[in-house]
Amino acid sequence: MNNSVSNTGRLLWAGLRALLVLTLVTGVIYPLAVTGVAQALFNDRANGSAVRADGRVVGSSLIGQSYNLPLKKGQETPEPDLRWFQGRPANGLGSNSINTQYKLLLSGATNLSADDKDLIRQVEDAKAAVVKDNSVPGHTIRPSQVPADAVTSSGSGLDPDISPAYADLQVHRVAEKNGLTAAQVQKLVANHTEGRTLGFIGEPRVNVLELNIALKDLVATE
């Protein structure tokens, strides 16, 4: 009996010591080591890839945000602020009293099939809006010019980038709204177009937040 109690005690003590050691290693030392390496070698990414403008953080290069006009009285859906480049639709993001699009983020796709009537309506409405918003005097947008990312949301609904084709489509409208020439705005787009990662991964892209910051700086100097 005493021998059994003694063995049980030794096993419990060995288990407790293993628990304490593993807690220290995996719960304290390892997280601190990973955090230290991340802060030392990848400080920007480890801290959310924050984008700064005018001395303050205005967003993350990894998360899209909306550029809308303030809601008018009785208005439920905000209108886009056409002075700025617009990102992809965010139809996959849910909305309730806590989570709204691009605020207190709720990531997600629409999960609608390609032949779903709601998705078809969303795409058709988005295409009509893109054509209308970006057609300015002397430059008319045709429906065939509208790229897919202008009318569909990404899998997460938080894509911070648009295709160069969608950025180019918005150039004349942005120039007209800001009193700039199309050539000036086109140059901004070209300067903020990133190629494929490592030359073969993904597609060329334009970060909307960084492009709009550059646009704001350009307008301020004119």
Explain how this protein is built:
- The chain has 6 helices and 5 strands; from the N terminus they run ααββαβααββα.
- It is mainly α and 222 residues long.
- It has 2 domains: 2-43; 63-221, no CATH class.
- Helices cover 45% and strands 7% of the residues.
- Flag low-confidence runs: none
Shape: elongated
What integer value in Å does the Rg equal?
25 Å
Summed over residues and divided by their number, the pLDDT gives a mean of 88
Number of helices: 6
List how many beta strands DSSP finds. 5
What is the SS-derived class? mainly alpha
Strand content: 5-15%
How many domains, as an integer? 2
Strand order of the largest sheet: 3-5-4
Distance between the termini: 92 Å
Q: Share of helix among residues?
A: 40-55%
Q: Secondary-structure element sequence?
A: HHEEHEHHEEH
Main sheet properties: 3 strands, antiparallel
TL;DR?
The chain has 222 residues and is mostly helical.
What secondary-structure arrangement, pairings included, does this model have?
Layout: H1 2-41, H2 43-46, E1 50-53, E2 56-60, H3 117-134, E3 161-162, H4 164-178, H5 182-191, E4 193-194, E5 205-207, H6 208-221
Antiparallel strand pairs: 1-2, 3-5, 4-5
Output the keywords:
222 residues, mainly alpha, two-stranded antiparallel ribbon, elongated, 3-stranded antiparallel sheet, 7% strand
